[in-house]
Structures are given as structure tokens and as C-alpha cells.
Write a structure and sequence with these properties.
233 residues, alpha/beta, Rossmann fold, 16% strand
Length: 233
């Protein structure tokens, strides 16, 4: 029996359990098999020709077409009617790690050593004039996905200085107490100061039915108000 035939039989009966079907396919055929991502499309570009402003919307909920996504879309509708270019990024559809705190970026021409979805976001952030952060309330603050994005911006800093960006915060929460949004709002103010004190508004939508309910629901008044906020940008 020829060596390759023997190996072929061996891989088919046992090897696939160890190295996976894609690796077996590449070895037996000598071809590269395109890897199928487990993540759906994460970046949607809505470009307006001749637009004078680029808006980057980070939708950080893992749930598409949920309350936060609908709130973000309402804001985008208003912004789009102003004729601005909008790029929407679904952070929940990307592999995105938090900062490891290794400091390598500060000695490596501001290049992060972590190779994940953030590599696609860095150029979008560099090009944008306005950063819109859309997040559900998770444990009294923004989502971990959005926090990971913020941490990874350290790579582009120079002596803790960052580029100036207009900032917008959109949030949803199941409750609507007087103090519900206190922590994320304080954090947002800190971020806005870091990025040049250019706050362009926030909208905080309380009383939204979330994962505890059979169906998610956001009051239409929240969508109307987010839309109007987009028109004010």
C-alpha cells in the first residue's frame, strides 16, 4: 500500500477526530478550504456620496433586532437623513478580546499584538468623526464587548493622548430608576473628556423588556427620541 493511501485511510477513520475536518480536507486534496466563520457579518457600511461626516456606530448587544439594535437603527435613520456616512459594527458578531495590559503596542508602532476583530475596527475608528456607543445595561454598566473595544484603544494612544471624536451614548435597560444609568453616564463623561470634550448627546431608554420576557419590547417613544437625536447631529 502506498504511503499516501495508508495515511488517507488512517485520517478518515481516526485523524479527523484529532485535527478536524478542514485540516483533513487540506491534507488529502492539497487545497485550501475556505474557513466558514461562526460569526455573521459584523460590519455594515451605509455610505453617502460626498458626505461631510463619518459616523461609526458600535452595537454592543449580542442580540440582533433586539431593543438596543432597534434603538441604534432609529438613531441611524436620523443621521442618514442628514446625509452622513454611517458604518455600523456588531461587536457581538466578532471575536474581540479585552486589553491584556502587556504594553507591547507602545513599543511596536502602536500595533496591538492581539489579532482579532479589533484589527477591522481600528481603521474605521481612525476615519470616523463621530463615535456612537450603543449598549444594553449589563450589571449596571455598559456591556463587556463595548468595554473591550474601549480598552483596546490604548494601542493607538501616545502618552495617554487620543484623537478627538464626537461622542454619543445610546443605552437600554429593563428598569428605569433614578439611578439606573448613573455609572455608565459617569463613564461616558470620562470618555468624552478623553476624546476632546465633544459630547453630542445621549439617550437612555428605560423600562425595556429584556431577556427575562418572552419577547423583547422597546417603547416607540424611545425610537422616536433616538431618531430625533440623530437629526440633531
Amino acid at each position: 500500500m502506498q504511503r499516501r493511501s495508508f495515511l488517507k485511510g488512517t485520517f478518515i477513520t481516526a485523524g479527523s477526530l484529532l485535527v478536524g475536518g478542514a485540516a483533513v480536507y487540506r491534507y488529502l486534496t492539497g487545497q485550501e478550504q475556505p474557513e466558514e466563520s461562526k460569526y455573521p457579518q459584523a460590519i455594515e457600511k451605509m455610505t453617502k456620496e460626498g458626505s461631510k461626516k463619518n459616523v461609526l456606530v458600535l452595537m454592543s448587544s449580542a442580540t440582533r433586532k433586539g431593543n438596543t439594535d432597534n434603538l441604534a437603527d432609529a438613531y441611524i435613520k436620523g443621521v442618514s437623513e442628514k446625509g452622513y456616512s454611517v458604518t455600523k459594527v456588531y461587536l457581538g458578531s466578532m471575536q474581540l478580546e479585552g486589553c491584556h495590559g502587556c504594553g507591547a503596542c507602545q513599543h511596536n508602532n502602536h500595533r496591538c499584538v492581539l489579532k482579532d476583530g479589533m484589527q477591522d475596527i481600528y481603521p474605521l475608528f481612525a476615519e470616523c468623526d463621530t463615535l456612537v456607543m450603543a449598549s444594553p445595561m449589563h450589571f449596571w454598566t455598559i456591556s463587556s464587548r463595548l468595554k473591550a473595544f474601549i480598552e483596546r484603544l490604548y494601542a493607538i494612544s501616545t502618552e495617554d493622548k487620543y484623537p478627538e471624536k464626537e461622542m454619543v451614548l445610546l443605552m437600554t435597560s429593563g428598569d428605569n430608576k433614578e439611578t439606573t444609568f448613573d455609572q455608565p453616564v459617569r463613564y461616558f463623561h470620562i470618555l468624552s473628556e478623553i476624546f476632546g470634550n465633544k459630547e453630542k448627546g445621549m439617550y437612555l431608554a428605560g423600562d425595556c423588556k429584556g431577556c427575562e420576557e418572552e419577547t423583547r419590547n422597546i417603547d416607540g417613544k424611545h425610537l422616536d427620541n433616538a431618531y430625533k437625536l440623530g437629526l440633531e447631529l
